[in-house]
Design a protein that fits this description.
Blueprint lengths: L21 E11 L2 E11 L4 E5 L6 H8 L7 E6 L2 E2 L5 H11 E5 L10 H5 L1 H5 L8 H11 L15 H13 L5 E5 L7 H18 L2 E5 L3 H4 L4 E6 L2 E7 L3 H16 L1
Helix pairs in contact: 5-6, 6-7
The structure holds adenosine-5'-diphosphate (ADP) and magnesium ion.
The site of magnesium ion (MG) has 2 residues, from helix 1.
């Protein structure tokens, strides 16, 4: 598999290079005064890279993803998507960045039951104001074809299996051709074989379409599909591994678990 070594932020010092798809610099998030769900996390993700964010429950993974995707604002630090500093944006501008540059896949799929599979896949285009003359349907169909579901376009989501529904959610995340796709436990509810289908599609989005993927997962086997695993521990970046294999990821997670008990 094609993998590249890249410059990263180490100890808060930026390695120079082209504009990163995603860049976090000293990002902290306090939900309550003095309690940091995220603590000064710096992370640089070049375009065309697949990153797995790992860590125990409560380590700050979802918080990291939500701050990185512009769904939540950090208490301090900066997030840049394609070089744009999100902290400088008002709500309208932030909404445009989310709409045009970001795709999301969640474990809870949030498919709309009253819409067809095609309409669900095209929802970001419809919400952005695509009209009847617009080519949203063609774009949605292409996105469905990319996940192998073009023949289910007219079905209701409820008629699809869990894995197929997750692929519709993936088509919806990719339909706007976003710079960065964020996925929070996208395979958490799937059996291993179905999960592998979804992971292969995320991998293909990176390899074939040049997308950047940031995926939160508990699952070492899922992380092994990524170019890099980053580990969170109590809100801090606790390590990163290039070309992670599942056994190595398991070992790191076990070490981190021991660390919190000692
Ligand atoms: P993970 O996704 O790794 O399980 P989270 O990012 O969801 O972790 O949570 C990190 C920490 O922040 C946890 O201690 C959690 O209880 C706390 N937390 C998360 N969301 C909120 C919230 N909306 N309000 C208060 N505390 C929160
Ligand atoms: Mg979470």
């Amino acid at each position: 598999m094609f993998r590249r070594r890249v410059g990263v932020l180490e100890g808060g010092t930026a390695v120079s290079g082209p504009v990163a798809a995603l860049e976090l610099d000293g990002v902290s998030r306090e939900y309550r005064e003095g309690v940091r769900a995220l603590d000064a996390v710096s992370l640089r993700v070049p375009a065309g890279r697949f990153v797995a964010v790992m860590g125990r429950s409560g380590s700050g993974k979802s918080t990291l993803l939500q701050c990185a995707a512009g769904l939540d604002r950090p208490t301090s630090g900066t997030v840049r998507i394609g070089g744009t500093d999100l902290s400088g944006l008002d709500e309208a501008a932030l909404t445009r960045v989310r709409r045009d540059q970001v795709g999301f896949v969640f474990q809870a799929l949030n498919l709309v039951p009253s819409l067809s599979v095609l309409e669900n896949a095209g929802l970001p285009l419809l919400l952005a104001g695509a009209g009847p003359d617009d080519s949203w349907g063609e774009r949605a169909l292409r996105a469905l074809a990319a996940v192998g579901l073009a023949d289910r376009a007219d079905d209701a989501p409820a008629r699809l299996s869990g894995g197929q529904q997750q692929r519709v959610a993936l088509a919806r995340a990719l339909v706007t051709e976003p710079a960065v796709v964020f996925a929070d436990e996208p395979t958490g509810a799937l059996d291993p074989v179905t999960a592998a289908d979804v992971l292969a599609l995320l991998r293909a989005a990176v390899e074939e379409r040049g997308r950047t993927v940031v995926m939160v997962t508990h699952d070492p086997a899922a992380a092994a599909w990524a170019d890099e695993a980053v580990f969170l521990h109590e809100g801090r970046l606790a390590g990163r591994t290039e070309s992670p294999d599942a056994q190595h990821v398991r070992d790191v997670l076990r070490d981190l678990a021991l660390r919190s008990r000692s």
